[in-house]
Amino acid sequence: MSLNISDPLSLLPYQSGLADPVLIEAAAQAADDLTAQQQAYKIGDPVPIVFCRRVSGNGGVMVSPGATEARYENDGTTNALTVSLHLVLSEGDLPTIPIKDVFVGPCRQGTWNQNYDRRSGTWFPGNFVTTVADKQPWSCPYYCGTSGRYENMTTLSYVNTFVDGSERWDHQVHVFVREGIQITRIIDSTLGPSNNVIDLAIYLMNESGRIPSTLIDSTEMLAAANFCNTNGLLYNGVFKESLNLDEWLEQIGNDFLLRLVEIDGKFGFKPRLPVNVDHTIKTTALDWVFTFTEDHLLPDGFEIQYIPLEDRLPVCLQMMWRQQPDSDIGFPRTTEIRFSGEATAGPFEQYDLSQFCTSETHAVKVGAYRLARRKYITHTLRLTVRPSSYNSTLTLGDVVRVRLRRETATTALDYHDFLYEVERIEKTASGACVFDLTHLPIDDQGRSLVALEVVAATAAGVSISAGRSDYSCDDNSSSDNTGLGGAGIDYPASGGNFDPPGLDDTTVGLDVPTDDTWASGGYPPIGPDVSQPAGEPSGGPVPIGSWDNPADPLEQPLDESGVGFITGGTGAGGAPVAGDTLSVSESDLRCDGQVCWSKIDKDTGEESEISCQDEAIAGAYTLSITTSEVDYFIAAVGRCKDPATSDGYGAPRTLGTTAAVEPAEPPECFTSVTAQVTINRVSSFGCGGCGSPISPVSQTRSFTFPVSVYKAYTEYSEGQISQDCDPGVTYGTYADVFGVDWIRVGTTTASAASVTFTATVDALCLIFTISKTQGSYQAGQTFGWIVASYGGGAVGCTYSAVALDSVTYNNTVSCT
Amino acid sequence: MGRAQAQYLRIFDTSSTYVRWQGYYVNQTVTMDSASWEYMPFSASGIVESGASGGKSVSIMVPATNSVVEAFNLALSYGRFCELKIYEFDSRLDQTGPIASQNLIASYTAEVVNVSGTFTRLEIELGSSLSPVGAQVPPRKFTSYLIGAPLRI
């Protein structure tokens, strides 16, 4: 949501940094107490960013890191207390710090280790303090930390022992960092520490993830970085307070004589002062980009706002900065800036640059800039002009001339003729352009008065003594450049003896919706379905979010024609047939609700309801089709539950309409089956004697239907045929054959239980018991049969008795 | 001079340009900068360039046709860029297509950061996510994963 409010010209001095910001009369931010109690980081605190680079004896920052773990242990005899602290110094990887630059309170003491991306020190956190007789017990914290993963952080471990009764055991630890976080410097494209505020701004823009790199104006940024570097406006500080990035960018620009600009949508900084090509402040005559005259002005296009009195009164600026000795603890200083003879007794205005400014020159030039603007700038303008080529050529910070003829009397001809800086540009939809301009005062040589004052302002250059005379508490040498140790712990996945929480312990990952195309997974709020763009997301940019919310019950498909969600029709093209059971899945209704079935006469279109089902059964709403629905279309209409309606159901939604119901037809069954017949017992017997056994054979027989159909047995119990043939082989009587029925071709059919096979009976043919009316047989299913085949000859003469024990279908046959 | 303004809108990313629209030459596809620009009636609000915090956005009103909805939905989803250019020219010279002497009077490139409107029209907000609310720095915070249960003094 955006709110549009009027933007009166009177606000311009404040928006542009011309007027003084709300003053905060407070101690310098760099004035930390050295012997304060050691601080601990809390969950949710920002991870500090130490950003500095000490160059030519200037720069660096004193950091007072918070602790995350501690160990307290005393000697059982002397009661000496050993304190171990684990500290987080900064985000990122910092170069190794020399031993001379680490302090406990004001003293160089202790044993130290430094690591990146791992835990420093090998000691285990905890309170192991015991009470020693005749000694004052130590009062140390009990919750000493559980350790963590410390990813992408520079960590420190500090261990020191304090004698019994020492009051220094909980003093704050301080570290003088000469080279801060490593970034790629914009000026030399080199990875390393930086003291250029533009590098910090770009780092924060990128890390915040709020501004695509495409929208960072690298050209303007490079020019601004060179301006800072050339004029000694350097950043040496620790960034630890949570601030809004947009606000910080705007504020920090003022303290580096920069202006945050957004040109054609790209962010950048431009110097607030005219500069030469070598990035020094220009103190020669100014050139202007464009001259506005009456020809450009639209009616009522001139508005002037004078700087109010309170912003023009002489003041004395107290610029606070930080003196940073090379071998001692830095301290904040003030430098008072005033025009000679003015505001000698005040009023005073404080500007605290001590958090990042270690150069008196920097502080003086910023102070001079502010003071000179108060002194010389008298007004601002708002010009409304017609559009022209200058619409696209003028940008923020450009110098323009406004020369307007002014007639107050017939004999009084005057000109409003000044130089201005472009502070704000509004290009309206109507075409008119509104320029907010800030007066740019110049001298008789056309030089910027403000620039002249800034260049002329030089620091006193006097280093004040730190005021410390006793260094006896130092255990480590102030000239010891030995780097801190590297002892530390790489946790195994389990954490080892420590107990750092793992990623799975502290993170809940939600599955990324995979069904993220509108075509199948959801619907756009308005407009068409959008297909997944070619090549995306695989191989292309991953969408920031889903294209739309995933499918939900409230989203209704537009296409409700055709069969829709109705299934179960077995006729041609899914048409229902009498005897079918139609169904609509509960998931297709997408809500708890009701499905009503109706039939529509295919000739007259008359519709009548068949039934309604208020609850899905086994996940579906079903309808059994009978012959009374033949030649009717079947429609399913769903309604979600809606307590707001009288019947408890909401608006109907057609789930589908089938083709006309077809009458049931006799099922088409197989017309032939090819079976592998394995003959198990073969013998011939004739009138008066037995023939010779025939070797078992396997034959393939094809049976064409209709055949003599009788009865199926899925369990075959082979019986024995009792005949006096085939010595050594005992045949039972057919009466003994269990579960087999017989068909006698041509005449009668006997039942299995009563039939006794005799040679006088007519030839038995294949007994084939596939039912044509019921059952379902699968290929490979085995059935048992007994077959006697007639071998020929007269009754009572030679027969061939064949017993086979299996038939294996090679066809899939199904009859209903 | 018969002053006229033509607005051109392009949606693109680092590798592709997805649409090119112009809102002046009705029902025409015109050629400019060696590219074709289809007609789509839209209007842009004023462009404000300022160093002041906030207020750095441009609004575009577009009809909610299917193609427009699709284009801006995808632009919003993928963080694509939108470039708005406004040209001024003398309408007496030629009305059939962009003329060589037209002046670029405004240009603005930003992300599509918000879309709102009705069934018939959409308001597209161009800007950056660098809003006055949110976007806090330093960006990282101490978490349980990073420091576990920390020391409590």
Fraction in helix of chain A:
under 10%
Low-confidence stretches of chain B: none
**Broad shape of chain A:** flat
Span between termini of chain A: 67 Å
Distance between the termini of chain B: 76 Å
Class from helix and strand fractions of chain A: mainly beta
SSE topology string of chain B: EEEEEEEHEEEEH
On the 0 to 100 scale, the average pLDDT of chain B is 83
Count of individual beta strands of chain A = 42
Tally of DSSP β-strands of chain B: 11
Q: Spans of chain A of 5+ residues with little confidence (pLDDT < 50)?
A: 667-816
Q: Describe the strand arrangement of the main beta sheet of chain A, using strand numbers.
A: 17-23-24-25-22-18
List keywords for this structure.
heterodimer; A: six-stranded mixed sheet; 10 helices; flat; B: 153 residues; nine-stranded mixed sheet; 2 helices
Describe the structure.
The complex is a heterodimer of chains A (816) and B (153). Chain A has 816 residues and is mainly β. In chain A, strand 15 and strand 16 form a beta hairpin. The longest helix of chain A has 17 residues. Chain A is flat and about 110 Å long. In chain A, 36% of the residues are buried. The C terminus of chain A is likely disordered. Chain B has 153 residues and is mainly β. Helix content of chain B is 11%, strand content 46%. In chain B, strands 3-4-2-1-8-9-10-7-5 form a 9-stranded mixed β-sheet, with helices on one face. In chain B, a hairpin with a 4-residue loop joins strand 1 and strand 2. The N and C termini of chain B lie far apart (76 Å).
